[in-house]
Structures are given as structure tokens and as C-alpha cells.
Automatic annotation (TrEMBL):
It comes from the Bacteria. Residues 1-21 form the signal peptide. This is Lipoprotein. The keyword Signal applies. Keywords: Signal.
Length: 246
């Protein structure tokens, strides 16, 4: 009889140890508070948190300007997935992995989803007076094909005859440059952006000057520069103007 009682007591002790010591009553937690400002045109997109569609003003798919605030709790050993999908094709456009340790990196989440490109940045169309031209630049895939390790480059905007219109000291991957403004002079004449290493007159890659032909529109121009390969040769394009969508 004493042996049976002893076994019961030991069983209870081991049970208590397993539930109270091995599994803490309270897990460490942090609040997630993510301010989302995005834009998508023409695609209709959907935000999903751990696979569940996010409702914005009663809608689970959205286009044009997209604004919402997500609030949830993240446990110490938990990983949450915030994803962006094309609502028609269900293709995943972007994925953000959020956990207890990196939660501060996701206070603000900004994006532009445009045909052929996804930008993780915030942008406002600059005010440009009548009769003026304004340019801003961003270079999100800088180094993708050139292998350049530069964080930003210098750009010199010129007329066809070589006259300098504006200089941009820091064209980088994450943010549009400050707008530079000059007098409009032609609806048909192109302008050219020459790309250099910061603070130099050396091409940012190679030995030949890299010139990007850009169409100038009167008013604001927010140009996305892109490295591409054409017949195995590096080319920089400036065909996408975010201002057209704002």
C-alpha cells in the first residue's frame, strides 16, 4: 500500500514539474503596430496576415491608394508573415517576416506596385510651378546586374547639347531624391542622365559614361532607374515615371 501511495506522489510531482516549470504561465510578448501606406495601379492587390486577408474599410482587395494600420501581438518564439498578393492571379508580390526581435523595423511599411516594378518606398508628387520641369530619381536595383557595391550614385541631367540642367548627388535604392527644377524648353527633345560614382566624374561602373535617355514632361517627373541586360550588355533604363500614377 505504501509503495502505491509513493508512486502516486511521485507522479503528481513530475506532473507539476512538467506543467509549471517546463511551460511558463506567461510568454514574453510585444505589440505590433504597423502603419501601411501603399499604392497599386492598375493591379488589384490583397494584404494577408498569416494567410488571412486584411480588411480595409470592409474590403479585402484594393487598388489605387491603400492606407491601413495593423495591430497585433507577437510572442517571443512566434513568426508572423505579412504578404502582398495580386488579387487576380494570386501571385505573391512581397513578403515581410515579422518576429519578436525585428518588430521595430516594421513601424512604417510603404510600397508602390506598378506595371513591371514593385517599390518599397514612400513618395509624394512634388509641386512644380507652371512652365517648369521637376525631376526626382530612385534606383532600386542598383548593382543587380552591374555588381556595383555602391549605396548611391551621382546623376547629372543634361540637354542633348551637353548643357547641365540639374545634378543629383545621392540617387539611392530606398528613397526618391530631392526634386530639382528647371525651365521647360521642349515637348519633344529628350534629356540625358549621366551616372557617376559619388563625388567624381568616373562612371559608376566600367569605363564608359552611362547615359540614360529620359522623356521630360512638363511638371513633375519621378523616374525609376533600372539596370537591365540587353544582349548580354548592361543598360540602365528610365522608362517608368511614378508621377504618371499619382
Amino acid at each position: 500500500m505504501k509503495k502505491i501511495v509513493t508512486l502516486i506522489v511521485l507522479f503528481i510531482l513530475f506532473s507539476c514539474t512538467d506543467s509549471s516549470v517546463m511551460q511558463p504561465y506567461d510568454k514574453a510578448q510585444k505589440p505590433a503596430d504597423i502603419n501601411i501606406i501603399g499604392y497599386s495601379k492598375p493591379d488589384i492587390i490583397q494584404l494577408r496576415l498569416n494567410g488571412v486577408p486584411v480588411s480595409i474599410n470592409g474590403n479585402t482587395s484594393y487598388t489605387n491608394k491603400i492606407e491601413t494600420r495593423l495591430r497585433f501581438v507577437v510572442d517571443e518564439n512566434e513568426t508572423d508573415q505579412l504578404t502582398i498578393h495580386n488579387n487576380q492571379t494570386h501571385t505573391e508580390i512581397a513578403r515581410y517576416t515579422i518576429n519578436y526581435h525585428n518588430i521595430q523595423d516594421f513601424k512604417d511599411l510603404n510600397f508602390f506596385n506598378l506595371p513591371g516594378i514593385f517599390l518599397q518606398t514612400y513618395a509624394v508628387k512634388p509641386q512644380v510651378n507652371l512652365g517648369k520641369v521637376g525631376f526626382e530619381f530612385i534606383f532600386p536595383n542598383l548593382g543587380e546586374y552591374s555588381g556595383s557595391q555602391l549605396a548611391n550614385i551621382k546623376g547629372v541631367l543634361k540637354r542633348e547639347n551637353g548643357v547641365v540642367l540639374a545634378e543629383f548627388d545621392n540617387i539611392g535604392k530606398d528613397h526618391f531624391t530631392t526634386v530639382k527644377i528647371y525651365n521647360f524648353f521642349s515637348a519633344s527633345a529628350p534629356v540625358y542622365l549621366e551616372l557617376y560614382k559619388p563625388g567624381t566624374t568616373d562612371p559608376y561602373i566600367g569605363s564608359e559614361i552611362i547615359k540614360v535617355k529620359i522623356k521630360q514632361d512638363i511638371g513633375a517627373n519621378m523616374i525609376v532607374l533600372q539596370e537591365v541586360l540587353e544582349n548580354g550588355k548592361l543598360v540602365v533604363k528610365g522608362d517608368i515615371d511614378v508621377a504618371d500614377y499619382l
